[in-house]
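pasting for ref
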Amino acid sequence: WMLKLYAMLLTLIFLVVLVAAIVGFVFRHEIKSSFKAGYENAVDEYKGITDERSRAVDTIQSTLHCCGVANVTDWEKTDYYKEKGIPLSCCKTGINCTMADLKDRERAQGKVYNKGCFIMVTQTMESKLSIVAGISFGIACFQLVGIFLACCLSRSITNNQYEMV
């Protein structure tokens, strides 16, 4: 009975992963819009390096070489821009950005990234989606093989018990 329990649990895990994948695929547009709303909110409430959300915005901007949600002009609507200008994480790698450059958008034009982060995040996620799908498919195949072998072994053990008598 332990093998049957193992096969049932493995089947349950397989079904949960399958349902999660289907839900993720069906609601991918809602996930994008939810991310966009959350990122817009994080940019609006940006405080520099003082809180976790601001550090996340800085990490996304410096890693993906982007600035703002749609583009660099998104920062002009924020309180942070009025006080300190464009964040330092928007500066292009290897270019020296001064605080004076970051406060004046015309001076910062060639020194900061112009592409928006929402487009960059969605492009990055979509480009990695095939890798995630392939790995998930491979794991699912191993789970199905495990379920099949557990059922075969359980049946074999059950059949052999009656023959031993």
